[in-house]
Amino acid sequence: MDDDELNWGMDMSAKEHKSTTEWLDVTVDFVASCKQLKLGELVHDKGFGLFEAMSAIEMMDPKMDAGMIGNQVSRRVLSFEQAIKEGTIKINNLTTPELVGIIDNCFCCLVTWLEGHSLAQTVFTCLYMHNADLIEDATMKAFTLGIIKICDIVRDKVNKASVFEEEDFHSMTYGFKMANNVTDLRVTGMLKDVEEDFQRRVKSTRNRQGEDRGPIIEFEHQLCVAVFSRIRFTRLLLTALITFTRKEMNATAEVQKLMVQAMDLLPSIEGSMEFGIQTQTDSTKGDQPILMGFEPLVNQRLLPPTFPRYAKIISRKDTMEYLRSLVGRIGALCEVTNLTSFHSILEFFISLSEQSPCVLSRSLLQVTFLADNKKVFGVHLLQDMLRESLRAFICPPVLSQKCCLYNNAQAREYVETFITHAVRPFCSLIQIHGHNRARQRDKLAHILEDFSALQDEAEKMDASLHAMLSKQEPQRQHLACVSTWVLYHNLRIMIHYILSGFELELYNVHEYHYIFWYLSELLYGWLISTLSRADAAQLAEERFTEEAQKSRSSKKVKKKKRARPLGREITMNQAHQSYCAGMYKAMVGFDLDGKVVKPKFKFDSEEVRFEHRFAAFSGVITPPPVHYKQFKEMTNLGKFNPPLQAGDLYTSAGKHFQQTKLILESLSSSEAEVNNLLKIVKTNFVVMKLLVGGHKKDSKIPPEFDFSSHKYFPIIKLV
After folding, report:
1. On the chain, which terminus has fewer CB atoms closer than 10 Å, C or N?
2. Are the beta carbons of 370 and 431 closer than 8 angstroms?
3. How far is it, in rounded angstroms, from Cα 485 to Cα 463?
4. What is the pLDDT of residues 556-612, one digit of tens each?
5. Is residue 48 classed as helix, strand or coil in its secondary structure?
6. Opening angle at CA 362, ends 358 and 363, nearest 5
7. Is residue 650 within 8 Å of residue 623, measured between CB atoms?
């Protein structure tokens, strides 16, 4: 049987099947059956349960079917090829205003995609992106290929870093060709050729300006500068992203130079946005604003059959602000390769994360540290960093060359095994700070389990090393050195977990008292104790070294004033602890005065909320978690005789704020964080003085808490 006979047979069988199919309307029977169900009852089949019911869509309904949105506009939605045939789009001889307008709109679409929308609704609403081979204009073709390559590299970097969530980034390409037939080097070469061509035009129009300063020549010169700046910026951004894939040691230094050049171009781009063609819309027909070469609905039927997600393209002004911050962050994140200690690298990741950077910045930092540049940050080098971090933090004798354990094979094996096991949780900690701020909180709760297991291993190793050291050098001790280091990081994770709740606005005001109590009485207390223990261990090890030098040398050794590397951190945490203690007592005072609005608990209680807030710490052994009953026993005001009044608590809170002020004034006043905290505690101290004096005593209006100066520690305001 040949192909024609086979096709004819298939057509006949289809027609026969179609003719025997009869459709029956079951609406009336369905409604009648539903009336027999009681309120709350459901009927479902094995193949159609609750999941299928929630995922089902109603076909042809504009509210449910994403593909139907295209039928609601009055204009025809044309593809790239159709637009070329009908002459609604130019593929050659584009004017400079058209180039400027299209390029600016493409930048807006690119930024909107980086903000979490899909490629189909952003970058590929530009018809030129669908098939660059059909474009004859050299400038438009080079720019189109450049944007596609940028999208492809960004997608690769973000996927490789794997620190994005569904709300951060859409990596689907919807079947579009990402210019795989053209190499990155070829695209940068095309952009360079166009850039040089416009640079010649800029020089030509400048010379003509010198001869004839007419407005036409001046405007032509400005247009040439506008296109030149945009093409050069595209090339620099693409080259920087390509450079990140290289594994040379000087790659990040080259990226920094490229970003400095790109930053210099942004004022020129922003100042010439008005020269490009602008979007147009027919408000009488309800159409969306469109620009030549753009069709917002061209890919609507490619979207999954779900609720249509509206993608609002970012304005050109906001796009410039976004690009300016992006270029600055890319240049700044390269500094991580210049850091040598693990603690400084971790602080770098934390500080960048606090700025809530975009998914691209976070991903580039991750791949720079963990993925691409293995020659810069390999596993063995990371082990060395952790070893040096441990030595710098607490100076354990086993890592000192002047200790008998340093050359002991068994002791060295203990240390190397522990460091090897520590790499994975510490790498995970670095990776967590690459996620968005909301997701970080969830992941910090899970990593506490890994650090608890690591701390248990460290305690066992410390016990073994102490037993070995006490036999050979009884005058030295190895008590809880490594476990103290792990405990330090464990406590920092716990504190970050709680404080992030203020940033994410998770806590109600009536919960503040036990949040600040947990911080001041437990976590900051343990952290200060841990840092003090490490500081004392450093001092003891230094004294032992000095005494050993004295015994070997007959010359007098001058005592050097010891610098305390942990001194500032201890002082800062003491200030935080004192502030939290003041906030706790202020909140209890407000409660006694009836100025805290409490919900009428029906389905939960304060105990349920307390246990929920600190549930992440239930698996942590050190410090032991405090349960609600313990909290109530420790904070019971009835044990005081006479019972404390609100004024007493305000007075005590004021003393804590005053103490915080004195602690902060001992630090450098040039730091922004110190100045912000000083402003906060001074204001809160004044507020407590007013309350002690009876200010607004009869008012039941609750106070306000202003987090504008600091995202964790608020200013108390009396309304």
Report:
1. N
2. yes
3. 15
4. 555 555 667 788 999 999 999 999 999 999 999 999 998 998 887 777 789 999 999
5. strand
6. 115
7. no
- The residue to which tokens 């309304």 are assigned: 719
pLDDT at residue 62 in the model = 57
Conformation bin of residue 507: beta by default, left when phi > 0, alpha when psi is -120 to 50: beta
For strands 704-706 and 715-717, give the pairing.
antiparallel
**CA pair distance 290, 292, nearest whole angstrom:** 7
List CB contacts of 310: < 8 A, sequence separation 6 or more: none
pLDDT the model gives residue 6 = 40
Instruction: Inform me whether the pLDDT recorded for 50 exceeds 80.
Output: no
* Residues listed for the chain: 719
Dist CA 368 CA 244 (whole Å): 7
DSSP class of 280: B
Among 116-125, 203-212, 266-275, 696-705, the range scoring the smallest mean pLDDT is 203-212
pLDDT band at 458 (very low <50, low <70, confident <90, very high): very high
Cβ pair 343, 95 in contact under 8 A: no
CA–CA separation, 163 vs 360, rounded Å?
10
DSSP-H helix ranges across 358-436: 359-366, 379-394, 409-432
Are the C-beta atoms of 78 and 295 separated by less than 8 Å?
yes
Using only C-alpha atoms, what is the Rg of the chain? 33
Number of Cβ within a 10 Å radius of residue 184: 18
**DSSP H or E run through 623:** none
263, 312 in Cβ contact below 8 A? no
Cβ-based neighbours of 52, under 8 Å, separated by 6 or more? none
Q: Which residue has the tokens 């000083």?
A: 678
Instruction: Identify the three-state secondary structure at position 517.
Output: helix
Going by the DSSP 8-state scheme, the letter that residue 707 receives in this structure is -
The residue type of 257 is K
SS3 call for 373: coil
Structure tokens at 651: 């007075």
Residue 402 has pLDDT above 50, yes or no: yes
pTM: 0.83
State the chain's maximal CA–CA distance in angstroms: 112
* C-alpha–C-alpha distance, residues 148 and 105, integer Å: 14
pLDDT digits (tens, 9 = 90+) for 659-683: 999 999 988 767 888 999 999 999 9
Token pair listed for 203: 């020089």
The 10s digit of each residue's pLDDT in 196-217 is 999 999 988 887 655 555 677 7
Peptide bond into 396 cis (omega under 30): no
CA distance 687 to 296: 55
What's the rounded Cα separation, in Å, for the pair 678 and 657?
9
Sign of CA dihedral 320, 323, 325, 327: negative
Closest CA to 323 of 253, 263, 243, 260: 263
pLDDT for position 544: 74
Please state, in angstroms and rounded to a whole number, the distance separating the CA atoms of residues 501 and 507.
Answer: 6
pLDDT tens, residue by residue, 298-337? 888 787 766 556 778 999 999 999 999 999 999 999 888 8
What totals of helices (H) and strands (E) does the chain contain, helices first?
Answer: 23, 2
